[in-house]
């Protein structure tokens, strides 16, 4: 049976989310336990399990709600500028220590829950920009927006994950400059 939203204390929920982020940063994902989160948040672990089935979904919600400040994207109408802003934001977020720890934990968790990795706010932002551009004729009509978003974000996430070179705003810009011409209307 799904949890009863009316019984969910917002104070307890926020304490749990904050505790999860603090503890994953301090302990790492492998040592993070629901018991530790419950103790840190001063709630019963059954409260956590009633709302989240495991630490992966708990961390995902904590990240979405309390992670890097969710900004309203500024759409200038210039696809290059807007995509570069989205990729630069991804680079900036990946550079934050807490975000790095949570993303690596979610990546680990995604082996069993692929939805966790696929519902990132940054991907949604990039896909939104691409959909608008395709509808307005700025991209070829046959462009698969989901694939195009992966082409843009994939190199950023790969460089972050493998640490093959510095992850910089300049790198994000270079990715946009290389990928976008292949997606544009001819």
UniProtKB/TrEMBL annotation:
Portion annotated as DNA-binding: 33-52
Start and end residues of each HTH tetR-type domain: 10-70
InterPro entries associated with the record: Homeodomain-like_sf, HTH-type_TetR-like_transc_reg, HTH_TetR, Tet_transcr_reg_TetR-rel_C_sf, TetR_C
Molecular function terms, GO-annotated: DNA-binding transcription factor activity; transcription cis-regulatory region binding
Superkingdom of this protein's organism: Bacteria
Pfam families in the cross-refs: TetR_C_11 (PF16859), TetR_N (PF00440)
Residue ranges that the Swiss-Prot or TrEMBL entry lists as coiled coil: none
PANTHER family in the record: HTH-TYPE TRANSCRIPTIONAL REGULATOR RUTR, TETR-FAMILY TRANSCRIPTIONAL REGULATOR
The name this protein goes by in its record: TetR/AcrR family transcriptional regulator
Originating species: Saccharothrix syringae (Nocardiopsis syringae)
């Amino acid at each position: 049976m799904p949890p009863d939203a009316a019984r969910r204390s917002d104070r307890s929920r926020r304490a749990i989310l904050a505790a999860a982020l603090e503890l994953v940063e301090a302990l790492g994902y492998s040592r993070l336990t629901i018991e530790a989160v419950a103790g840190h948040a001063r709630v019963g672990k059954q409260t956590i399990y009633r709302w989240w089935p495991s630490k992966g979904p708990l961390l995902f919600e904590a990240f979405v709600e309390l992670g890097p400040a969710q900004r309203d994207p500024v759409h200038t109408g210039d696809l290059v500028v807007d995509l570069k802003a989205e990729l630069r934001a991804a680079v900036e977020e990946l550079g934050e220590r807490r975000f790095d720890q949570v993303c690596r934990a979610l990546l680990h968790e995604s082996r069993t829950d692929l939805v966790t990795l696929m519902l990132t706010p940054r991907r949604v932002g990039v896909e939104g920009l691409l959909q608008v551009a395709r509808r307005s004729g700025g991209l070829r009509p046959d462009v698969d927006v989901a694939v195009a978003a992966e082409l843009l974000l994939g190199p950023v996430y790969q460089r972050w994950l493998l640490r093959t070179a510095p992850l910089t705003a300049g790198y994000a810009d270079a990715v946009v400059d290389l990928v976008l011409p292949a997606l544009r209307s001819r």
